[in-house]
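Dear colleague,

As promised, here are the two records you asked about, laid out in our usual form so they can be pasted straight into your sheet.

NAME FIELD: protein one
SEQUENCE, THEN STRUCTURE:
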Amino acid sequence: MQLHTLTNLKRTELFLANARMYLKLKQYKEATRYFDKSSKLAKEEQFPYSKGFDKIIEDYVLAGRKTDAITLVDELLERQAFLGLT
């Protein structure tokens, strides 16, 4: 993750890959840690909403982080309006 040649978008993809691995292991709290990292970086990038976010939101709930799931939904809705997708 410290490679200078990696873009934030690539780092985001790597964090998401780690999160998916933890999801397969049903380690939801660890998975959401990586979702948090990817979300922080992704806020700086331009990307459209994806159905994959539905799964991430569900995983936050499974990890006992319902408030964070709601926050993520709110952020995605704001971003959607910001990008002119509404």
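NAME FIELD: protein two
SEQUENCE, THEN STRUCTURE:
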Amino acid sequence: MAETKTGMQQEENKDLGEMLGGLGWGDNKPTYEDKNEISIRFAKGMMKDFTAQDGKEYARISIPVENQPEGKSWPSFVIPKDMIRENEGGKSMWAKLPANGKTTLSMNEITAVGEDGKNLYKTKYASVDNKDLKKMLDASREQSKGRDSFKEKLEEKKSEVKPPEKAVGAPKQEQAL
């Protein structure tokens, strides 16, 4: 019986070998044009976590706009928190969205000033294809590359600030021993 099993295993391996040999192997990796998902990337600081009334975790991701008109917030969108992953460097995040799906963007706009002097806002909504959303996030990242970072300007700002000449506070009292 041992010979029979070994013989059957050789026949099964031979069939598998023949199947693999008939695949038409080549040197070029195949390309796939139809992707079901797209990856979006964004800075960690542009994400704010929150819990909805139903208890589910979500994240609001803002899209920074450099020359945003006065009185308008940056556009933002909401996705479930479990869809978001952190890049290895820890500075940026990414998520996969359906390639043929749509996402709702929201943006707050000042409509009036209340009696107490506080601004009154109205939220506006727009639906955008996920492919266009990816283009917006990529364009936002590109515009921020030309901008000087706060860390680069920190030393310059430190040199501008001078420490106070006199001590602030009550004069020091001598204690009797």
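A couple of things worth noting about protein two: The longest helix spans residues 2-21. Residues 152 and 158 are 11 Å apart (CA to CA).

Best,
R.
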